[in-house]
């Protein structure tokens, strides 16, 4: 094609403008997809709101170097490790269970409060496997005596504890022993 140089220049300019318009239209049609593909990883200073807006709600691992504030319930379904202080306002141990025991029963506490029932007088041993500082409250729930063997137990008199009906023993776990804090009779 024989065109004058000024027409060739105008044709190149028009073709370039056309290509730019086509690229702009295509880019606007796929802008969301292009943004997702080119999205940078979450920065370490991203806010929780920004992380949730990205659709991230389940984490395999998460390390937090600052404060964590939970505005509603927090449920931890596996182990939680805390290095430092833990402050609980309005501390509630919601772990009560009735337990029917037989003679020679070994209790490995997984709850805080146990109401102990038995068909006859029995002896119970507390397992020496708990977390340091774990509290334990034992309640004699029926007319049969429950003797807590002095194995792994540090009572105020060094002997086994005997819980009758309505008696309460409060203990805490420390150094592989259950230490008696309080024993209340007929409470």
CATH class descriptor of the domain at 96-184: Mainly Beta
Strand content: 25-35%
What structural class do helix, strand and pairing data support?
Answer: alpha/beta
> How many strand segments?
10
What is Rg? 35 Å
| Overall form | rod-shaped
**Low-pLDDT sequence parts:** none
Mean pLDDT across residues:
77
The CATH topology assignment of the domain at 96-184 is Jelly Rolls
Task: Provide a count of the helices.
Answer: 3
Give the end-to-end Cα distance, rounded to a whole number of Å: 110 Å
The CATH architecture category of the domain at 96-184 equals: Sandwich
Described by strand count, sense and barrel closure, the largest sheet is:
6 strands, mixed
What is the topology, as strand order, of the major beta sheet?
1-3-5-9-10-7
- What order do the SSEs take from the amino end to the carboxyl end, as H and E? HHHEEEEEEEEEE
The helix content is 10-25%
Could you please describe the fold and organization of this structure?
The protein is of the alpha/beta class. It has a domain at 96-184: Jelly Rolls, CATH 2.60.120. Helices cover 20% and strands 25% of the residues. It is built from 3 helices and 10 strands. It has a 6-stranded mixed beta sheet, with no helix packed on it. Strands 2-4-6-8 form a 4-stranded mixed beta sheet, with no helix packed on it. The chain is rod-shaped, with a radius of gyration of 35 Å. The protein starts with a helix and ends with a strand. The relative contact order is 0.09.
């Amino acid at each position: 094609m024989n065109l004058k140089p000024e027409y060739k220049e105008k044709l190149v300019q028009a073709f370039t403008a056309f290509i730019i318009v086509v690229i702009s239209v295509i880019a606007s049609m796929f802008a969301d997809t292009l943004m997702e593909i080119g999205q940078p990883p979450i920065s370490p200073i991203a806010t929780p709101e920004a992380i949730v807006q990205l659709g991230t709600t389940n984490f395999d691992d998460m390390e937090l170097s600052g404060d964590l504030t939970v505005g509603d319930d927090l449920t931890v379904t596996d182990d939680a490790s805390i290095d430092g202080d833990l402050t609980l306002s309005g501390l509630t141990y919601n772990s009560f269970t009735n337990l029917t025991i037989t003679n020679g029963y070994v209790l490995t506490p997984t709850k805080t409060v146990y109401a102990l029932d038995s068909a006859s007088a029995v002896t119970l041993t507390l397992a020496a496997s708990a977390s340091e500082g774990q509290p334990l409250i034992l309640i004699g729930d029926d007319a049969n005596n429950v003797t807590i063997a002095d194995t792994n137990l540090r009572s105020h008199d060094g002997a086994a504890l005997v819980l009758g009906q309505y008696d309460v023993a409060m203990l805490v776990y420390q150094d592989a022993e259950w230490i008696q804090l309080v024993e209340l009779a007929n409470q």
